[in-house]
């Protein structure tokens, strides 16, 4: 399974798609948040001087897990801890929920990821 991610930096956009294995949509979305933060974390020199980054997940449930760790499923502690750790290090990250129906590109990338064996990242 694959999930997508996008973040806006003014006019900058990045989309990611990766094989996420077998998981429900909320767990896959949480892993996608982790992948996006990992990309930002390891590419910090590219984003130096950027004032804000907006991540746009389509799962309100995954977002609620980040804001309320006690609500997160027991089988995802490593993913939750990784996300929270990176959020504490990376400044000015915010989230904006986007309905899946409103983002056809992300939905398409997610479906393509069912056959994906490697990560896909594109910058615009």
UniProtKB/TrEMBL annotation:
Organism in which the protein naturally occurs: Hevea brasiliensis (Para rubber tree)
Signal peptide: 1-21
Domain RNase H type-1: residue ranges: 10-112
InterPro entries: RNase_H-like_dom_plant, RNaseH-like_sf, RNaseH_domain, RNaseH_sf
Superkingdom in the source lineage: Eukaryota
Pfam family, one: RVT_3
CDD domains (UniProt xref): RNase_H_like (cd06222)
Lineage of source species: Eukaryota, Viridiplantae, Streptophyta, Embryophyta, Tracheophyta
Keywords, sorted A to Z: Signal
Protein name according to UniProt: RNase H type-1 domain-containing protein
């Amino acid at each position: 399974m694959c999930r997508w991610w996008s973040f806006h930096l003014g006019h900058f956009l990045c989309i990611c798609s990766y094989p996420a294995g077998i998981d429900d949509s909320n767990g896959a979305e949480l892993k996608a948040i982790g992948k996006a933060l990992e990309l930002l974390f390891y590419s910090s020199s590219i984003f130096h001087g950027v004032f804000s980054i907006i991540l746009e997940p389509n799962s309100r449930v995954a977002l609620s897990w980040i804001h309320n760790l006690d609500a997160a499923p027991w089988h995802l502690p490593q993913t939750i801890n990784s996300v929270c750790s990176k959020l504490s290090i990376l400044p000015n990250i915010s989230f904006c929920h986007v309905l899946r129906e409103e983002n056809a590109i992300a939905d398409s990338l997610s479906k393509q990821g069912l056959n994906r064996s490697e990560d896909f990242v594109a910058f615009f």
